[in-house]
Every structure is written in C-alpha cells, then in structure tokens.
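Inputs:
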Amino acid sequence: QVQLQESGPGLVKPSQTLSLTCNVSGGSISSGYYSWTWIRQSAGKGLEWIGRMYPSGRSNYNPSLESRVTISLDTSKNQFSLKMSSVTAADTAVYYCVREQWLGYVDYWGQGTLVTVSS
Amino acid sequence: EILMTQSPATLSASPGERATLSCRASQSINSNLAWYQQKPGQAPWLLIYGASTRATNTPARFSGSGSGTEFTLTISSLQSEDFAVYYCQQYNNWPLTFGGGTKVEIK
C-alpha cells in the first residue's frame, strides 16, 4: 500500500517561498508508470493541479503557476518536493502530494497539509 | 484550459434513494474522466476512472457513464457513508482540471 505524507511549514509570509516535501512509502518514486504531483485545494479555487514530475525528469506545470513553481524528485530518499516563490494570500490552501497514474488520474493521495500565507 | 461544470451543486437525498450527479466538459475529453469522493477533513478518494471503470475497492453501487462532454455518476442506493462531496476531473488535456463538486447531503 502506497502512502504519501506531506511536511513543511504551515505558515509562510507574503513574498516568501513555500517549500513542502512529500515522503513516499510502500512504492518507489523511480517507477516509470507514475508521475509525482502536487494539487492544492482552497475555498476560492477548489481543487487545482499545480504540477507533476516524472522519474525521467520531464515535468509539467499549470500555466497559471509555472513561473513560480518547481517540483523535484529525490530518488535516494524516495521523496519529492514543491517550491513556490513569491506567495500571496491567494496561495493559502491545503496542499496534497499525490501519485498520478500515467493516464492522468490520481490513485493515492497524501492527507494534505494546510499552508497559510500571512504576515 | 478545459472547464468542468458539475450539477447540481447540492443534492439532498435519503438513504436508499438513487443519486445522479452530472459533469460537463467545455470541450470533448473522450472518456478521460475520473470521479472522486471527499469527506470532511479527508483527501479525495478515487472512485471511477476512464469514465466508467470502478477503482479498486469502489462499491458496485457506484457507476459512471458518458463520453465526449457529458458524464454521469450514479449511486444506485445511497448508504450513510456516501454522503460526501463528489468531484469529476478530466485528464485529456493539460492542465488537468476538476469540477467544482457536488455535495450529496442527507435529506
């Protein structure tokens, strides 16, 4: 059974960089059948795809966030990470790390972590 | 970006009743549609993919249908654990997008 667990600060100041890590257990992130993805959920925008990274190094980012987002994989630790720069209050949301099937649907979700952007 | 529109926003029903949820895409997504269930304080959970294929552990009372732009999730007989929010998601085009959700509440 694959399990994902997000970690990182719950409070980030405006204009700073949000950094989250997802620890994966029960499966290898090096597997070529999946991508490792971040999704967020806020009251204002609902569920929003942030981006994905494949083990090959290929990535896709939501065009609305692409200029501020980087996703990276650390296969040695079986983890992947999200960095989002220049955050504002609009980035306040629950952030989920997920495993995305190669077709594009999510079969495993982390429990989610609330990140609040506030001074 | 493909816009996913779900209706109704809220569906009130009684246990044992049939529930029908709709999802419309702003352009054709073939059968590249998934449905998720989300309960308060929990992450969404995959119910259906490929528009009609039940995921592992999805009860048989859940069924999905449709292709192109019109999709339906049917719960044949509502159980107490089915009262939740349901989201559709398209994976035909990047960026992948979700609908706004349908809340199924107890009547």
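Chain A is about 0% helix and 55% strand. Flag for discussion at group meeting.
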